[in-house]
Design a protein that fits this description.
By secondary structure, this protein is mostly helical. It contains 14 helices and no strands.
């Protein structure tokens, strides 16, 4: 299925409208938002899509507008066999207490109580992600993520659950970050599944996949590849009326703009026309 993405200028205009709508919802004037941060004229130009704020300015604006950056998953995934354990896992994950989460999941009685593929898939997803965040031990983290993926039966189903796509994306993200090699086959597989609308449960968490992919591209110094992926993610969010991760998406957008601006063949003004 062909996907039409917004061009860069439209995305920048959406950023301006997004900040403007939040400012107005908080009953702030442009002058009040700008106070101590930048000139009011800058706020006006940003809201009109005529200027791209740098990362520092956007961070300050998001802070004043109470728009959180570094958002976590919108929906958590339950371990149905162990509801009490599941709630604690979600609580530790939501508070980014990854060391404590890994220690909690290390307790053998939790794993021993699980007997369904869905519960095991969820358990190893949180275990692998917590391991990587707490220790940066990519080998152990990948082992746990891949154990979760073995619970996906068949291995290449016609339709996928969002958690399965998150697992494939996290696997590729860890690989890229660890090896510094531009092998994006896992991300490409996931994005193609989304494009073909082969999702059983199209949750807001899908937004995180586009963000992770674009961030991985930018991490390897490929802003040209990151840009269309991020814009496609923004389009997906808008089409599904989701505001999840939009602040993070736009923060990444200004980083991509900075990266493209350093390319000798790209003039920043061209990106806004």
């Amino acid at each position: 299925m062909a996907i039409t993405t917004t061009d860069f200028a439209t995305a920048v205009l959406r950023l301006g409208r997004y900040l403007q709508a939040r400012r107005q919802a908080l009953n702030l004037s442009q002058a009040a938002l700008a106070a101590g941060i930048c000139a009011q004229t800058q706020i006006n130009r940003i809201e009109q899509g005529q200027q791209v704020p740098d990362a520092t300015l956007l961070t300050r604006l998001c802070t004043r507008l109470h728009l959180p950056l570094g958002q976590l998953l919108k929906e958590n995934y339950p371990i149905r066999r162990l509801p009490t354990v599941s709630r604690k896992i979600h609580r530790l994950s939501d508070h980014q207490q990854y060391g404590a989460l890994m220690t909690y999941l290390d307790q053998p009685q939790h794993l021993q109580a699980l007997n369904t593929d869905e519960d095991l898939k969820t358990y190893y997803y949180y275990y692998g992600y917590a391991t990587y965040q707490a220790t940066h031990d990519s080998a152990t983290a990948l082992q746990r993520i891949r154990t979760a993926l073995t619970m996906m039966l068949p291995q290449r189903p016609r339709r996928y659950r969002t958690l399965e796509l998150l697992l494939l994306a996290v696997e590729n993200e860890i690989q890229v970050t660890t090896t510094q090699q531009a092998d994006f086959r896992g991300f490409e597989r996931v994005v193609q599944i989304i494009r073909e609308e082969r999702l059983i449960d199209p949750q807001d968490n899908v937004c995180a996949i586009f963000y992770q992919y674009a961030r991985a591209c930018l991490h390897l110094g490929q802003p040209e590849r990151a840009l269309p992926i991020l814009l496609e993610g923004i389009d997906w969010a808008v089409a599904h009326r989701s505001h999840y991760l939009l602040a993070d998406d736009y923060y990444l957008l200004v980083q991509i703009y900075a990266g493209l601006s350093q390319r000798p063949h790209v003039r920043p003004s061209k990106l806004l026309t």
